Amino acid sequence: MEVFTLLEVIAVLWLTDKTVLITGCDTGFGNLLARRLDQLGLRVFAGCLTEAGVAELRQSCSERLQPIRMDVTSSDSVKTAFRVVEKAVGSKGLWGLVNNAGIVGSGVGAMEWSTVADYQAVIDVNLLGMIDVTRTFLPLLKRSRGRVVNVASVAGRLALNYITPYSVSKFGVEAFSDSLRRSMRCFGVKVHIIEPSFFRTNINNMEVIIRLLDNIWQRQSPETKKEYGQEFLQATKDVIIAGDGRKLDPVAVVDAMEHALCATRPRSRYVVGWDAWLVFVPISWLPTELGDLVLRVLSPKITPTCCRKGGE
């Protein structure tokens, strides 16, 4: 759980007058945050990709929470959501925007297995969707001198070569968020970055990722399969299975999101997860060669067949 100082736990006054829009509320962090803010008495617009997500939140939350269909990869969908929210908030504006929608996509496994289409699919949601939503809703945030909360990742600090498209998208989220924070300061709009490590949510469901890995392996050429070998594929699966038991409770991430939205003294950046603080962040601070060496020492030894036979 995130530890906050005494000054940091003081909440903003009149929270029940505030309105927040959250993307990616079908499951995971977004769903939990929508419920949390609803319980706190805030007015919440919960963007869901599916009708099932809309129905589930509508049935289980109060009338203050309004779930809406929202596909962040569709500008038309984003504009439709904007019109709904603008009509509801009027001159008060929007207090908070939480850009939470995200996917790992099908770009898992060895770096060179991912196609340009794999990169595009992940970037469309994790980065370009975030940019489109933010630019669209900025006028409402300026009215209230509100807050933007962007969900990045430790994979946006330290590139992880087994989920390269995801890392690329999250590095982009970091750059966009830093630029946005500096640009919006004069407007009174605050920007906060959430950097979770690995938490137990649908986005990194072990069984789903292993199925993706099998599908990606099947589409590789015979030459690539020979280079890497079945042992590489199985070793990668073993690492995924072993890591599943170390995933953390997502409540800690929701605590950080709530603090960014509700505290009088929110932080610009929230690093969430013990492994983030002990492993990912320190390695990201090291000189490149030393950081690479530490990663090689700490990472499971998974080597393609051709490299084991021919040496480094």
Please, could you describe this protein's structure?
The structure is a single chain. 53% of the residues lie in helices and 11% in strands. It has 312 residues and is of the alpha/beta class. Strands 3-2-1-4-5-6-7 form a seven-stranded parallel sheet, sandwiched between helices. The longest helix has 29 residues, at 116-144. The mean pLDDT is 91. Residues 1-21 form the signal peptide.
Labels describing this entry:
312 residues; alpha/beta; Rossmann fold; seven-stranded parallel beta sheet; 11 helices; 53% helix; globular; signal; NAD(P)-bd_dom_sf; SDR_fam
Lateral arrangement of strands in the main beta sheet? 3-2-1-4-5-6-7
Q: What is the CATH third-level topology name? A: Rossmann fold
H/E series, N to C?
EHEHEHEHEHEHHHEHHH
> What top-tier CATH class fits best?
Alpha Beta
Q: Could you write a compact summary of the structure shown?
A:
The chain is an alpha/beta fold and 312 residues long.
